[in-house]
Amino acid sequence: MDRLTGKVALITGAGTGVGRACMEIFAQEGAKVVGVSRTQANLDEALAAVKAAGGEGAVVSADLSTPEGAEKAVNAAINAYGRIDVLVNSAGVGYNHVASSPGSMDDTINTTPEKWREVIAINLDSGFYMCRLVIPIMQKQGGGSVVNVTSISGYQGLPGAHTYTAAKGGMINLTRSLCVAYANDGIRANAIAPGFIATRMVADFLPLFDDEAVADSITPMRRPGTPEEMAYGCLYFACDESSYCNGSVLTIDGGTTARQ
Predict the structure, then answer these.
(1) Are the C-beta atoms of 130 and 12 separated by less than 8 Å?
(2) Residue 61 Rama label (left phi>0; alpha psi -120 to 50; beta)
(3) Is 129 a catalytic residue?
(4) d(CA 230, CA 251)
(5) Catalytic residue among 81, 95, 155, 164, which?
(6) CATH homologous superfamily of domain 8-253?
């Protein structure tokens, strides 16, 4: 329970889903955690869970689709703890985003330029904004670990959600490029690629698993993954146990892509 003792972890998308699970699990492993998302109420719940388990952390509400929001988040972490050892980029939107933003998960010809820019800003630009601010801090410290939460949709073709898949594919190759550029600074960059995970992002699709045949067609394990199972993948890359992993993409999908 001490794999991250003495480290400070800045976690985006920390209000719900994988980001929130990272907040709780990283704190249990000894990290001081700083959680970021747009919704303060969700952050407050996440921080309360961290503290209830004996962990230490802070939260900041920021819109990471803008450079100003990323700067606010990074400044909050530095002001709270003076360093950043781990950056987890988990902020993003998925299929449920269509409820508040119709047309955001369409195919190319039905996606407007405005919806393209909106989803790219949240799912890809946010990771770039955070990395460009955090990596210089890690360089001065002598190292660090960047963990990007992507998706198997980043290397699969889908009939819809083309902006989402493009953003996730971009994040995968950004991860590899960070590895190549900054390995000599002691900075590792890795990614996890989740499959079908039981989060709010895909809540409307979870009833599909009630049909055994449909569930089997989605994944050999016939169930969705959990945010905690994804967070443990992030924990591996964040801690020193993965010291020779750099530019790696860990698929955590219950076997979905094994059939392809």
Answers:
(1) yes
(2) beta
(3) no
(4) 10
(5) 164
(6) NAD(P)-binding Rossmann-like Domain (3.40.50.720)
Q: How is residue 234 written in tokens?
A: 């992030």
138 is written with which tokens?
């890690």
What is the domain partition of the chain in residue ranges? 8-253
State the greatest distance between any 2 C-alpha atoms of the chain, in Å, as a whole number.
53
Residue 16 to residue 92: CA distance in whole angstroms: 11
pLDDT tens digit at each of 260 positions of the chain:
799 999 999 999 999 999 999 999 999 999 999 999 999 999 999 999 999 999 999 999 999 999 999 999 999 999 999 999 999 999 999 888 888 899 999 999 999 999 999 999 999 999 999 999 999 999 999 999 999 999 999 999 999 999 999 999 999 999 999 999 999 999 999 999 999 888 877 777 778 888 888 888 888 888 889 999 999 999 999 999 999 999 999 999 999 999 87
For residue 98, what are the contacts with CB-CB under 8 A and spacing of at least 6? 104, 105
pTM across the whole model: 0.95
